[in-house]
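User: Could you write out the 3D structure of this protein bound to protoporphyrin IX containing FE? I've included everything you need below.
Assistant: Certainly. Input first, then the structure.
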Amino acid sequence: MSDLLLSDDPLYAELYDVRREAEAMRNYVAEDQSEAIAALRANAPVHAGPLRELLGLPEHQRHVMAAGKPKYCVLSFDACETVLRDSKRFSSTIVHHPNPADEKTMGVLEMDGGEHRAFRRALQPIFLKHNAEGWWRTRWINEAVARLVASLKTRQRADLNLDFCARIPVHTITTAIGLDGEAALKFRLAWMKSGGVGRVAPDEQCSAAQQVEAMLLALIAKRRTAPQDDVITRLINSQVALPGEEPRALTDREVMLNARLIMIAGGGTSWRQMGIALLGLLTNPDQLAAVRQDRSLLDAAIEESARWCTNSGLFCRLVTKDTELEGVDLPEGAVVELWLNAANRDPTRWDRPDQFDLFRPVQNHLGFGIGQHRCLGLNVAKQEMFAGISALLDAFPNLRLDPDAEVPFITGGLEQRGPSALPVLLN
Ligand code: HEM
């Protein structure tokens, strides 16, 4: 495993600071909007217009295809669930990122119907629960966690956001894909630049996108001749059975696009979510003590963190034909915004929805989505968070928020959330 895991490379602070990330993406929101969103949701589950506009915030253009289309925002649990479960009326074929050919570049995430089922089936085995608990844990996650905890042992204070949470997912996903661990930050930087993050000029954006593709295509070429036990090799060995076609291997481009999606989906999400789960526990000492007593409660704490505040709060769908949702007419071609955190705090479904409470009765939430596109990597994400938090609790029986530091809070854009920092006393 690379030394970058433990290094003080300033790129960590640049790439793994929730506020800076949101500012670079031009969607940072300074004021807490929970009350205003709750008021909108109480007023109606579905509204004409994008949520940001309804809140008086500057627009954040999320998808290429959304430009110029009528937009609606969906805020209640039932309405979001209806949309997520109905891919006939609400399509996922939305181009997320600018590219010269307006190509769908996000693999399974942007597919529908038979094509989506076929590719999802091809990818699924890599992410099954037993593989997350076995292959992912033993080959990638456990070592990163153990080395990070050992590095904290000599210290009194830490910012767990930067010194711990940021490092586990990016190293897990980079090395599991098959790239050298030293490439972890390079990939993320190039990826963020390719999406126009950080006000980069269009030609720099283009060359960053090419760099990301080139890194993965070079790896695919290498693995075709010298297979290894990693995600790229498993994707190369997968078969896709598209409707009406004979099963076949994935092309280099299909492997590249899906590998890139896995790296993007896996590199930033579990980082922010592990921080949210730790924040929930550290600010609720009774619940933290209960988890210390009975480690099996950690699963419930992780699940509750995704209900309380999912780090990825917005997914969109394209309306395929004129339809109606909760009494609102939606024209064909409109874009519906599904605000998962608004849905997950719907008071008609949860008591005291704004409170983190791992003892809540178990019921579905939308933190990992639901329906056909439900998060493919959720078992991996849960293993990363479980392994990381559990190891911290074992190593530091007195772990607590640092009373001399600024009290941490959840920040970012409405679209991606995470803790401002996690300053702790370790001993
Ligand atoms: C706590 C962390 C994570 C959260 C909250 C999260 C959330 C989500 C959500 C809400 C979706 C559904 C998107 C939609 O309906 O359009 C999704 C899809 C997806 N996620 Fe995650 N994710 C997380 C971690 C990961 C990780 C670690 C990986 C990979 C290792 C991953 C891979 C994917 C993939 C490939 C999809 C697309 C699935 C499809 O379209 O069929 N995610 N994720």
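The first helix runs from residue 11 to 15.
User: Perfect, thank you.
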